[in-house]
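Thread: "does anyone have the structure for this chain?"

Original post by V.I.:
We have the sequence but no experimental structure in hand. Need at least a predicted one for the grant figures.
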Amino acid sequence: MAYELTRRNCIVFVAGCAGAEIAHNYHERKGKYIFEQYLASVEPRSLVNCGGCAAISLANNMYMYSRAAGGIPLYGGIPEVGEGSFFTTFSLIVWGSLPDRMYAAAAAYARLGIRVVVGPASGWTWGRYLPGNRYDRSKWWVYHGEDGRKRETEPIPEHLIVPVETKEEALTMAARTFFSTSEMREGRAARLDLLIELYRIFYGQLPEDWHLLIRSHLDIPTRHRIKLIKALRDEQGWEGEALKITKARNRDGKLLTLSEFNTSYGMELGRYHCRLARLLPKTIKERQGSA
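Reply from O.Q.:
Generated one for you, tokens below.
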């Protein structure tokens, strides 16, 4: 799993027994162990060993991200940290035996907005899951940061704590959790490319809900653009010309221009949004209170 994610430009942090187990992986052709093949740095295509089981590596990095990028205090700011990290692409795979202390660790990650994938077989004997439902449209919304109105969004990230049984399920589920409603076109295309590639390798098909993640033809990875635009037209009822989408089918069945679609579903690029009403700008909250 570490190899598949790292070589596809992810930044992978490992800790504890998982890090020790990963270190045994030796590439015969390259003549290197896996930690010798990749950088140990916080940049794409890196594999970072954070130490023993007590490292809880991802949580520390998430706190540092919120502090440096958002200026959020490390203490007394859990709701704000969780709000911020929920719209980022941090995810955790807990793999192997699961002692009781991992209940608390997984709950802490979920509270921070970080998605947790638990497995393999022990994932089904674990006692706590926080699954989502992509088909329940009432669950997928955010407050728009400019007017405070609710906006329907893509069903991402779908789960907070979810069990899996195999490494293939773990990888595809992790790839699902990487999506964010606030990402730019290039980021969405890169994550969609990763998800499609893993589904192709492991299952020989497209993800069943890939069309729910498309906001325009610019979100579609270049190498899949011809096939996916054709599928949008033939299977989902969208309209387009050549390699461009001109009208998109909303989840309520309406056929909308891209301008209408982008102001009714998902978020415009670069716009502030949140799930906690108290994090809206003060002027918007005042208008809502007077209304």
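V.I.: this helps a lot. The longest helix spans residues 185-203.
O.Q.: and Residues 58-290 form one domain.
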